[in-house]
């Protein structure tokens, strides 16, 4: 089951390979951008030269989109109920019926130059969780590039909280290691190996008894998160063949974020909630948990790429010959919405963050080449997974543009002959009606969003809650500017071989 010796297992880009594998990987890197640009440019071409064909294509696309929206809204509502149910469960009582005292939780918190208040908030939340703190291993993972400021913060945190946990380890990831890309993946991989040497081996803790939660530094665990995670781990038939995914609520600072930041953050949460109801399409994202044994077997997270949080799932998926999946916890953790000192900087940060998330498209060539190489995975699994991944990134980059912009093209550039047809007259009305029905779903979005908001700070006016509802009218703008455009840019960069580096989202608290 060890694939670490194969040349494609740790590949980050085509240049990491040689010969025919390199050429194949490069062609697969081009594929997502080719499909997205082909759809967009093909629509423009048809609208200009064959407007009737374009009109029928747009009508079919609108129907596909409205049905998909209804389908996803159903899953959103179902997961909303599931999360509320899970938040009410007494996980302590459920665990009392089984033996779990041997389970340790390792929480890795990577940070660069974030402020003390951000790191301390996450540490304090860990202290407030309902789990034996002596069975918790806190790994504060610094970057050497963080400089003296990061070291001072780490020293302060360890001095204040180190003795409150069973084990507390501060690691410093060296800079400029050959073959590594600076970022979260290389940092937490280094931290995990240091924790293995200095904590697990030193204190004879079994790798199979340790669950690792790779959190972002702003991740705030809910009170019973580790009880919930432990229950799912112990009740799973094979806990070493699964990862565990909570739902990220971007609401730590939500009352201070501008409207478009709140909508972008809420939309990201909703997408993860929908995916929780479709575990066959779910991969790990951002803060996630996995057995230390599983991590150790494949050499931890990849160190030469941006989207390490999802790549670790695909590493494990290929290593287990397709017999690996994600268990949706339907239980939240809280994180920061994008916020910066100025509105313009907030806007840029949201775009860069969503572009980095969209860079997860770099997994497509890795998955497809892995499927070519691994003959043990069934053909049906390969086809299903390939379609889900390709369609997902294609939809991200094209759907908002098709619905809100390109749907009007045949009328605008189709020529006088087309504009005299009944089809030309009905196309704008049809597109508008489809958009109207889709917008009805925003009422559900607003309701769900309000139910998960933290208490309103006293210095925030009560009318702000009204704006929390009205803000969802911005969805057509936000999914285009912060969804389709960064998604298309990421795919274009990959297609042209203009690879991205890891961009750290700044954390700002008012």
Please characterize this protein's 3D structure.
By secondary structure, the chain is of the alpha/beta class. Helix content is 56%, strand content 10%. It is built from 18 helices and eight strands. Strands 3-2-1-4-7-6-8-5 form an eight-stranded mixed beta sheet, sandwiched between helices. The protein is globular and about 80 Å long. 45% of the residues are buried.
Keywords:
510 residues; alpha/beta; eight-stranded mixed sheet; globular
Question: Which secondary-structure class do the elements indicate?
Answer: alpha/beta
Rounded to an integer in angstroms, the radius of gyration calculated over CA atoms is: 24 Å
End-to-end span in angstroms? 48 Å
Strand content: 5-15%
Q: State the share of residues found in helices, binned by percent.
A: 55-70%
How many H/I helical runs? Answer: 18
**Order of helix and strand elements from N to C terminus:** HHHEHEHEHEEHEHEHHEHHHHHHHH
Shape: globular
